[in-house]
């Protein structure tokens, strides 16, 4: 064997292996201390990209689960208000039934009428004060559909004071056309293949009164004033056409920007005038005839609230199933991300022990390799 002092090949080889063991030990220490198998892109560039997408999806779904829980809370507040409105209407039905009997004196009907008036005020107070995070829930404004170019419908003598589109379909477009004849004024609303028209006879609305045109097939209600049914109107306004786009309250539950990742709904207006299908909010029981009429009006209101509560319940159930699905997805996605990125501590401990031994052995061998050339000194003695 030749003895060389300019280049110690054994020492260089040992140093190379020692550097490999040192890098392995450093990587094992990094993985054991962080708990992650991938700490930087150089560890596994493809795995890092995949795990980053998983993490983004997991964080979005976590927030989606929170959104579903908040929606549930909102719906519970709305349902609580509807429950109290139901209780009030049932009391009003009881009072109206009492007043509708000839066994009730006129003075007692007056007292009953006063209580019903107070109960009417309480319904509207509950409706206007029921809020969640500053948003009023059951006055028809939550999840209401926006109406573009509504000014065309409220111009001049058309006397359209309100447009309730809380029951309209989210994302749909509606065309509203108003035409007049010598004896009637007709409003027509069209959405795709569905068209509904309501005609109002000339001078059929009493002075100072309003009428609600209920386009039930489309979920839209239009409130008109007493001069709406006058046939001589501004020609441009009478032919006005407007587009209505439904924008129901939307809750983002998924991580993508499409309708399958959202749930949209609206809440019914529980104001008494709306519940009574456009009747005056002043339900009178001061006479036998008025009391008898009040029974039918209150029945209509109770049916409307029942429908509203059923709708709230169905959305609550839907949110519950959506939340359960999100929880399952989060569990499975987290497991998938863990397989790619999390470190197997048992395996890393084995690698750490191996690299530690190799580092110690390599250090000892490097010392021996550095000492080997010194044997040449015996040749010079």
Distance between the termini: 20 Å
What is the overall shape? Answer: elongated
The arrangement of helices and strands along the chain is HHHEEEEEEEEEHEEEHHHH
SSE-based structural type: alpha+beta
Oligomeric grouping of the chains: single chain
Main sheet record: 5 strands, antiparallel
Gyration radius, rounded: 38 Å
Beta-strand segment tally: 12
**Mean pLDDT, all residues:** 82
Please mark out the parts with pLDDT under 50 across 5 or more consecutive residues, or reply none: 147-157, 234-242
List the strand order in the largest sheet.
Answer: 3-10-5-6-7
* Annotation field: number of helices: 8
Helical content class? 40-55%
Instruction: Assess the beta-strand content as a share of residues.
Output: 15-25%
Family: Belongs to the bacterial flagellin family.
InterPro entries: Flagellin, Flagellin_C, Flagellin_C_sub2, Flagellin_N
Domain Flagellin N-terminal: 5-141
GO molecular function: structural molecule activity
């Amino acid at each position: 064997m030749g003895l060389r002092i300019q280049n110690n090949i054994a020492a260089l080889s040992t140093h190379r292996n020692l550097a490999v063991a040192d890098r392995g030990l450093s990587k094992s220490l990094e993985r054991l201390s962080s708990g992650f198998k991938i700490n930087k892109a150089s560890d596994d560039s493809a795995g890092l990209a995949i795990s980053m997408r998983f993490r983004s999806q997991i964080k979005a779904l976590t927030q989606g689960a929170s959104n579903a829980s908040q929606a549930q809370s909102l719906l519970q507040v709305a349902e609580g208000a509807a429950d109290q409105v139901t209780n009030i209407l049932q009391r009003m039905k009881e009072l109206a039934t009492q007043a509708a009997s000839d066994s009730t004196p006129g003075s007692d009907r007056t007292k009953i009428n006063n209580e019903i008036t107070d109960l009417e005020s309480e319904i509207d107070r509950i409706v206007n004060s029921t809020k969640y995070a500053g948003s009023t829930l059951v006055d028809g404004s939550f999840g209401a559909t926006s109406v573009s170019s509504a000014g065309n419908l409220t111009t001049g003598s058309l006397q359209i004071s309100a447009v309730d589109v809380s029951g309209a379909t989210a994302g749909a477009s509606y065309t509203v056309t108003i035409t007049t004849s010598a004896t009637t004024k007709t409003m027509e609303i069209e959405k795709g293949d569905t068209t509904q028209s309501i005609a109002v006879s000339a001078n059929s609305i009493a002075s100072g009164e309003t009428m609600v045109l209920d386009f039930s097939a489309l979920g839209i209600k239009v409130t008109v004033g007493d001069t709406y049914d006058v046939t001589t109107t501004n020609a441009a306004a009478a032919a006005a056409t407007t587009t209505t786009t439904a924008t129901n309250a939307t809750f983002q539950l998924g991580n993508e920007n499409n309708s399958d990742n959202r749930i949209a709904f609206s809440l019914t207006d529980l104001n008494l005038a709306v519940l009574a299908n456009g009747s005056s909010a002043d339900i009178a029981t001061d006479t036998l005839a008025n009391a008898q009429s009040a029974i039918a009006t209150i029945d209509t209101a109770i049916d409307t609230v029942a429908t509203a509560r059923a709708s709230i319940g169905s959305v609550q159930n839907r949110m519950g199933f959506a939340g359960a699905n999100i929880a399952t997805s989060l569990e499975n996605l987290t497991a998938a991300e863990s397989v790619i990125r999390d470190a197997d501590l048992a395996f890393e401990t084995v690698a750490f022990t191996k690299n530690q031994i190799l580092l110690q052995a390599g250090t000892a061998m490097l010392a021996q390799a550095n000492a080997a050339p010194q044997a040449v000194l015996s040749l010079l003695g």
